[in-house]
Design a protein that fits this description.
Length: about 160
């Protein structure tokens, strides 16, 4: 639940260097930074291999420009409906970050809404093009000798 997560993060935020709090540990508010630090705890980041792995890791709020055009994949093992029982409480990291002073939730929501509108328009256009191509392929008449050449090339 959000309440329990809030208590746990408040407990984590309380931990600081006694002599000089500016020496750390540092408690990030942004969801991407929280995820990055969580993953850092799972990786041997003090070895060269772990440091290289962390350098390859990219965390963002929302889906920024170069990645909004890429094909997205679903990881079934990470789906909430498969991981949590129906009666279990959960919280979203954005809500937790918002409680602890992350100020960009409204901006990210607005940008994501704009991205979703553009993405829906692109998908609609893509489906129309695919459908038109399939119909035109059905209408095409191929001669017997051309069909034989296509079969030999593996396009039958």
């Amino acid at each position: 639940s959000l309440y329990r997560a809030k208590l746990k993060y408040a407990n984590f935020k309380r931990k600081k260097t006694n002599s000089n709090p500016r020496h750390g540990p540092f408690h990030q508010r942004a969801p991407s930074k929280i995820v990055w630090r969580t993953i850092r705890g799972m990786v041997p980041h003090k070895t060269a291999r772990g440091a290289a792995a962390l350098d390859r890791l990219k965390c963002f709020e929302g889906i920024p420009h170069p990645f909004d055009r890429k094909k997205r994949m679903v990881i079934p093992a990470a789906l909430k409906v498969l991981r949590l029982r129906a009666e279990r409480k959960f919280c979203k990291l954005g809500d937790l970050s918002n409680l602890f002073g992350w100020k960009h939730a409204a901006l990210i929501t607005r940008l994501e809404d704009q991205r979703k509108v553009k993405s829906a328009a692109f998908h609609k256009k893509k489906v129309a093009v695919t459908r038109a191509r399939a119909e035109s392929v059905k209408k095409v008449k191929v001669s017997a000798e051309d069909q034989k050449i296509l079969e030999n090339a593996g396009f039958a």
